[in-house]
Structures are given as structure tokens and as C-alpha cells.
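agent> Task received from the user: take the single chain below, predict its 3D structure, and emit C-alpha cells. No templates, no multimer pairing.
agent> Plan: (1) validate residues, (2) run structure prediction, (3) serialize to C-alpha cells, (4) report one or two observations.
agent> Step 1 OK, no nonstandard residues flagged.
tool_call: predict_structure(input=
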Amino acid sequence: MKETEAVLKDTERQLEATLAQHQARLNPVETGCVTYVGQGVALVEGLPSVGSQELVRFANGDEGVAMSLDPGQVGVVLLSRGDEVRAGTEVTRTGRVVDVPVGAPLLGRVIDATGRVLDRGPPLPELERWPIERDAPAILDRAPVTEPLATGFKVIDALIPVGHGQRELILGDRQTGKTTVALDTVINQKDQEVICIWCAIGQRTAAVAHVVETLRQHHALAYTVVMVAAGEDPPGLQYITPYAATSLAEYFMQDGRRVLIVYDDLTRHARAYRELCLLLRRPPGREAYPGDIFYIHSRLLERSTHLRQELGGGSLTALPIVETEAQNLAAYIPTNLISITDGQIYLSPELFHRGILPAIDVGKSVSRVGGKAQLPAYRAVAGDLRLSYAQFEELEAFARFGTRLDDATRQALERGRRVRETLKQAEHVPLTVAEQIVILLALNAGLFDAMPVEQLADAQQRLCDAFRTQLPELLHRLARGEKLEEKDREYILETTRGLLTPE
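)
tool_result: status=success, residues=503
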């Protein structure tokens, strides 16, 4: 049987090769001529049969993508600087759409959207190539989001949970910690059997180098692929990079793996597309963005999903990042992405400046899917925490206007301050699921109420160290998703009281 299959496959390859030869004779290679070169784009005449998103090659070896198919000329987006492309340069069709190499050898490497190596490592082996534009999975091919994605942040995993296959937007002003939240989430996937794709769009080279070095220091680069289109790269390369990164992520998803992809950030991607469209003389709309700006992001993020078990059960979780200006959540690009995604994590500059890190505004953040995938133990210890914390923030703002507070209000404020201090977390120090549950259980039980706020960080560290060494089996059961039994709850609280009580 195997010999028959091998013969059939060999015959099929021979027939395909013969057919390709005949097609080449019947359809000679089309060539065109550059009539205009702009900053990152070129207009070409003489390619009447070129298709949309088809890769074309210039005489000097540079490549471009056919984007605008106007009568009599083709608008080509350059994928390189195109310094040697001039009016009169010959252009040739390649007959294939833009594609990207995919495969396990890319793990731990830094590449661009065309597959060029950027990390000074050895050349890549010959790999399978997938088109960067692929159809999103059909509705019937998708499964519900049921597995939690542990980010390592108490405030996210407890109050704004994210599930495998979800699209959770991270947004906020500049320098509020958006990249750090995504980066620590990737670091927390160590030993979680999750493949990570870091897609940097329009970032400074130094910033990307810092991300790569941080991943390397925390041993996270081994399961991560970094795909880069730096700010000095042409806008065409910045435009195709998130699609190429998603195709790479889909390769692992189709193999039944759980994948996490970070787009840092889609604001710069939208600006790159706006620049290309204005150079190609497409009519501008609101804020000079073209009318299809919503479509380019929706077709990108729709590819993130959780596949049914019959199709391998793989998942692709997306964490797109978008930058706001002056906390304006109602701007064009942020509102587009909020409506596309399944929730958002908003980082407030006010909280950042007050030293509340991560600066996540719980009141403006939401997860529309992840709560269904949250572990039972989380629901037992953090069920009412979100509402009480939001009420505390309103009460604190109101209390600033008065000096006389009743005992109940004063007690609620003191408790809320300890909740806020407990939810603080240093960068690159993610906590496991079990460690978070232990801390939140102690918080809800009021074991931190009598403790000075400035001592809470040390108390949490003592708890984590003690439970990690003394009760590893209990922590392991909680991490597996088992329910928090009443006897376990009492045992944790009793042990915690003993650890926190001064001798």
C-alpha cells in the first residue's frame, strides 16, 4: 500500500512539473516598466495579467507587492528601500503571492516578513512557505474558548482573564507599560507548551533589541519567533509584517499547538497603510485613513481562534497593542480595534505616574470571553474583587473632598488600599496560578488588613516562597485547575496566618 502511494505521489509530481512547463510556454513571463517611483511605492505599466497581492521583481533584484490594479498601470508597494529603482526599470511577474517561511527551525530566531535573518545567526534551512494572506477559519471549525492563558499578572488573571483563542486588546498612552505587559505574558509561557510570536511593527531598532535581549535573559526566546519591521524599514514591509507573522502562527496552530501572538503595535501598522494609500493616490477618509482601514485589521484578527478537536484543537491567541493620545479611547483606530477584539486592557498614565504598576485601569478594562475559561479556584477567591475594587476607586476619589469619614468608609478605604497594593507587581516577575490564588485568598480573608501597606510586598514574597517549598503538591493541584476545596482553603489560611503572625 505504501509503495502504491509513493508511486502515485511521484506520478503526481511529474504531471505537475509537465503542466508547469506547458503553461510557461503558453504564457511567457510578463514584463513591465516603472513609470514613477515615490517613497516606498512605484507605478508600473505593462503587467495586464498581474493579480492583487502578487509578488513582482525589479531588474535590480528588489521585490514589491501589486496593491492597486488601476486601468493601464499597477501600484506596487516596495518591500525594500528601492534606492536603485528608477523610471524605466524593468519589472517581472513572479506568478506567486507574497509568502513567508514557516516551521520549527524559526523558533529562537529574529527574521523579517520575507524570511531574511536579522540575528546574525546561521542561515535558515529550506522551509515550507505559506502565503501571508489566508482565509480565517470558518465558524463551524471553531471551538469555544475554554482554556485560560496565564499572563502571570494578578490583576489580569483574576479580574480580566484571557483565554486561549481570544483577542485581547492592550491600549494606552505612550510609556505606560503596554509592551511590558505583553512581554511578561510571553515570559510567563515558559513550560506552558505555548509557542509565541512577537511581531514588532515600526518600532525603534533599539527597542526591539531590548525585547529580544529580555526574552533571551528569561529563557523565553527558545519558544518565541521575533518578526521585525523596524521604523526605518519601508512602509510596505511594515504593512505585510503582521499578516506574515499570523501565517507563521497559523502553521503551529494547524499542528495542534497553542500559540500566542503579540502585535506591537497596530497604530504604526495603520499609519504605514495610510502612508501607502496616500502615496498611491487612494481617496482619504477620516483622519486621512483610507476607508478600508477597519477591514485590514478585522481580517487580520479574525484569524485568531480556537480550533475544534477534530481539526487538531490548536489555538491562536492575539494580544494587539494600540497607542492612544491624551487618553482618547474614542479615536478612530482605538475604537475600530475595540469593536474587533474580545476585550481590552487599558493602561492609565495617571496610575503609571502614581507608581501603581502595572498601570491597569480595572474600571475601563474588560474581558468578554476569558471569564468562561477562568480556573474554578480563581472564581472562588476573586469573584467580587473586581466590583469592590472599582467601588473603592470611586470612594477614594470622593473622600478627597471631605475630612470627616465614618468608620465603615474609613475601613473600606484601608481595605481598598491593601487590595491595590496587593495587585501591584514588578516587571518581569510573573507569578504562577497557584501563587496568585494563595495571595488573593489571604487578601479576601483580611489577613493583610492589620499589616502596614509598605510591608505587603515582602509578605507576599514570604508566602510564595513558603508555599513553593512546603506545599508543592497543593500548588500543583491548583495549577491543574482543580476546585479549591473547603479543607484546602482552611489549610492555606491557617498556614498563612502562621507565616504572617509575628513571633
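agent> Step 4: summary for the user.
The chain has a mean pLDDT of 91.
agent> Done.
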